[in-house]
Amino acid sequence: MMFADVADRLSEHPIANLVNSGRDPYGLIERLYKRHGEMFEYKIAALPTVRVCADPEGVRQVLSGSYDEFERFAGGVELFVGPHALILQDGDPHRVRRKPMNPGFNAESVRAFGPAMLEIADRTLASLEPGRTLSLLDAMQDITMRVIMRCIFGVADGPRFEELRVLTIEYLRQIFSPEALALGVLLKPAGAQKWMSGRSKAARASEPGSDFTPSRWPLQRIADRLGRIHSLLAAEIDRCIEQGPETRHDVLAMLLRIRFEDGSAMSRAELLDQLLLLLLGGYETTSMSLCWAVHCLVQHPETIARVRAELAEVMGDGFDPARVRDLTYLGAVINESMRLYPIAIGISRKLRVPKRISGVDLPAGAIVMASIYLIQRNPALWPEPEQFKPERMLDKRPPAWQLFPFGGGAWRCLGAAFAEHEMRIVLARLLTSYDVSIAPGVTVRAVQRGITVGPEGGLPVRLTRREPPRT
Q1: Do residues 33 and 20 make contact, with C-beta atoms less than 8 angstroms apart?
Q2: pLDDT per residue as tens digits for the range 230-247
């Protein structure tokens, strides 16, 4: 018994949790829940202790909390974005910045991006090679990156686009390397980002179009790529200013047009941090959610048949991206896949004031995580929670505290509508163009991939081409 107790304690050591959260994030949170109940401590190396809440009422309290009660806890996001990023703002600074940014991501603005999303999806999907095993994640990341470049930055294909695409992919891979994580443990995530930023000055000063060779040293290589990304983004800001933000309809132009309550505009430093957040966040999250949706679909041929029947009915005269909101069953498929496989296990808040949550009195400064994964698989809320049943999403929208893959409350993901619109278009075109199957011998397993939880190996699949879709 004593040996078992010691083994349990060692298995929950902050370093063990850090390793296990990478190898099996869903499994780790489930094991802790089964061992400790609906409110338990979760300790990760380099981060403060978090209390995970899986109690429905407690989760509702966290999601509905006000700026006066909570502040945002980013949980390591500081490692790869600068301090001005919206995700790191609290209280009035967050409210003042979030409000004028909302119109750029509302339903009307998102619909305007539909034709570009469709053209990019069709072009990328048409380039895939049927019959051989490929990583679906690679294709989905290619689509999401091109959509971000076109719709967020107003950048079309070309040398600058290609360099920024490659640099972003490499930066995201390397920022979660053992060396970078060790720096995060040593300096804490915000300190590591500050160190990286300081070491990136030479690359920031480089001219777009000039030769760029990052250092061979691991940490300096990451800093060099961060600096070069900033250099390229700064050049896009200058290009937009030169063309006139009022003449363009991308998100960068919208950010340049923003004036806050005191009449001021975004500073150059804040613009760069917001753009980097949109680039890194949108690229990873949407592509991974698309992979999980396909993973669910290929196990249920009857669901694919129903999606295709809905597409034939709604888009009978040709695919119109403005009408994807009418694809209600496809929307249910997306919601159900995000219920089963959220790309984050939870969202965290830091208490500004003492508060009682789930029967536990927590002091000011305590950090509590509303567990997306545990709530969305709670059998008291979701009958047969392990089963993929899109029909459950058709009757009525679940309460915000019961289904919240995009987060909730004041800090709900700014790009949620953008991501869902893009997902509907990409999945519709994929299922129209191909029959998809998981590659032989592959067992799909969830692992932590950077900032998101995704299928190991990027979801290896095989494609069989169907009749060319009508656009």
Answers
A1: no
A2: 999 999 999 999 999 999
Q: Which of 196, 187, 204, 201 is nearest to 220 (CA)?
A: 196
At 234, give phi and psi (nearest 5°).
Answer: -60, -35
Tokens of 38: 């609906």
Give the angle 180-445-345 at the CA atoms, nearest 5°: 60
Per-residue exposure over 149-181, b if at least 16 CB sit within 10 Å of its own CB, e if not:
bbbbbbbeeeebbebbbebbbebbebbbeeebb
Vertex 79: Cα angle to 42 and 205 (nearest 5): 180
39 closest CA partner among 48, 28, 50: 50
DSSP readout, 258-269?
A: ---TTSPPPPHH
Task: Provide the terminal-to-terminal Cα distance of the chain, rounded to the nearest Å.
Answer: 66
Indicate the helix (H) or strand (E) that contains 387.
none
The whole model's pTM is what?
0.92
Question: What is the predicted pLDDT for the residue at 9?
Answer: 59
Token duo for residue 275: 């753009």
CA distance 294 to 304: 10
Q: Please state, in angstroms and rounded to a whole number, the distance separating the CA atoms of residues 268 and 402.
A: 39
Rg (C-alpha) for the chain, rounded Å, is 22
Q: What is the pLDDT of residues 389-431, one digit of tens each?
A: 999 999 888 999 999 999 888 888 889 999 999 999 999 999 9
Assigned token pair, 96: 């003042």
pLDDT digits (tens, 9 = 90+) for 349-383: 999 999 999 989 999 999 999 999 999 999 999 99
- In DSSP notation, 183-218 reads HHHHHHHHHHHHHHHHHTHHHHTSPTTS-----SSH
DSSP H stretches of helix in 251-327: 251-257, 268-298, 301-314
Q: Are 66 and 91 in contact (CB under 8 A)?
A: no
**What is the set of domains in the chain, with CATH numbers?**
87-154+248-343+384-465 (1.10.630.10)
Q: Distance (Å, rounded) from C-alpha 80 to C-alpha 174?
A: 10
Strands 367-371 and 355-357 turn out to be: unpaired
Asked if 140 contacts 293 with a C-beta cutoff of 8 angstroms, the reply is: no
Q: What gap in Å lies between CA 281 and CA 286, rounded to an integer? A: 8
